[in-house]
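3.2 Worked example (two chains)
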Amino acid sequence: MISEHKLAGGGKLKNTLFKTSDWSWKIIKDSLTLQPTNSRKIELVRSLIVSGVSFVGDAFILIFAKEILGIHYLVAAALGFLCGVVINYVLSVTWVFTTRKLASKHIEFTVFVVICTVGLGLNLLVIAALVERFLLDYRLAKVVATVLIFFWNFFMRKKLLY
């Protein structure tokens, strides 16, 4: 729906808010279906959802390992990250990305793990810097690191794997 507003000089200004909003809701709605897609926008939304689910598993392991088992926060963060990687891989290949660049699932998983290993290193560096230098709580540092590393993971996977 596009509405027009009259300007002081007699000109017209088109309001495209509803048009943009309708488009955004369509992308979100289409992202929530189980239908395969080749739309990068839908893949990005689905990847955000998968990352959210993976983050819940990751954060649960991190907090459980640190608070209940008494493991050092960086070791606990690595364990949580690995749990999140497994969740992310399974959901990515079954729901987010419908095309694959590599024929071998073994090679695909190996490249996925390499991307995630670099992501883990970046994740741990961000967490350590935020906790040690800026004195942030490890849980808040984990949230910040996760947001930053999401973009690394998505674009590297899209470029190399899907």
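3.2.1 Second chain
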Amino acid sequence: MSKAAPPVTQAWFERQMRWAGILTLGGLALAVLYELHSTPYTMSGFLMGSPLLVCAAIGLYLRARLRQNRAQQARLTPAAWEAGQTIFRQGDPADCIYLITHGEVETFLEHPDHGRLLLRRLGVHEYFGEGAAFNQGTRPATAVAASPVKLLRIDQADFLMLYTHLPELREHLQTQIEHRQPLPRLAPSPPHPRS
């Protein structure tokens, strides 16, 4: 029975990079030892050991990078909707955010008394659904494809990891959120008088 590969986490990747660095330093240490104390033993250690250690370090580095890239690509799920299709509804669980790669999306507030109120129209390179992803609640609005749209879906846990580790993403999202208008606060309609 084969053992499953460990999940690609930031800690796993950093551990792999540490080992690659240690192997490279080992190869360098053999070269320094040979330079400082030249004997047939240090020469054979340098000629055989250094290339093996450096090749092992390169192999470990490439393997870790490849697995990290595959894991990151797997986390971004492409999705497509036709114009008029609902992407998510107000009240649905907030389990991911979306990045628009093509087309436009409109977000609406569904109000029992006032009907469907347009909040915003979003285009290429804009995010939506990120507000609810922070508080693990439900969607505060409904999102509908305003045109044929292509999106990248990012799961909540992956989004929060990216948000934590990428200051550029954090700044971009903060700027985008600051430029958005707050959701309208609508008072319920007064009860109808009885006749």
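3.3 Remarks
Helices lie at 10-36, 40-75, 130-135, 156-165, 167-179.
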